[in-house]
Amino acid sequence: MPPVREEDDIREFPSLGPIEVQVIQVFVDGVKVLGLPRSLGEIYGLLFISPEPLSLDDLVSLLGISKGSASQGLRSLRGLGAVREISMESSRRAFYQADTELKRLVGGFIREQVRPHLESGQSKIGRLVDVAGDHEDPRQREFFESRVKQLESWIKKGRIVLPVLQKVLGE
């Protein structure tokens, strides 16, 4: 399979200007690195560059995504602390605005994405210790046990670093 060229990955947004499209692409690239859905980068990017809060319908229309995708994306972004709901006096609809504080974005990502993986990894390591110790071939058992110890070390370090990182960012 040929590698995806960067220009092949750029969607078109006919109703948006060039700066909006480029800002959206910056956030799409960012969420790809983090393994998050493209739609999260599109939604956050548009909210980030929009001078006014936008409704769900605005996001659907401007980004050309489904209402379900927009709704789920907003829910995820709110869970991360990246987006907040704004009430507008003139409308009963909910409007959304990007939270632009780095400490909240990183803190939300750590809280919602990284910490659960560390906790899940810790419980899996316990099972790996047993499985590695039961291997029949002594050479492979020794190799597996050393790798499991390495994983334990990484998780232990992650559990130490994450709270420090959150404290540094003011979370």
Q: Helix-strand pattern, N to C?
A: HHEHHEEHH
| CA-atom Rg in angstroms | 21 Å
Uncertain residue ranges: 1-8
Instruction: Please give the largest β-sheet.
Output: 3 strands, antiparallel
Overall number of domains: 2
- Tell me the CATH architecture of the largest domain: Orthogonal Bundle
If you had to describe this structure to a student in words, what would you say it looks like?
By secondary structure, the protein is mainly α. It has two domains: 6-98, Winged helix-like DNA-binding domain superfamily/Winged helix DNA-binding domain (Arc Repressor Mutant, subunit A), CATH 1.10.10.10; 102-168. Helices cover 67% and strands 7% of the residues. It contains six helices and three strands. Strands 1-3-2 form a three-stranded antiparallel β-sheet.
Brief rundown of the structure:
This protein has 171 residues and is mostly helical.
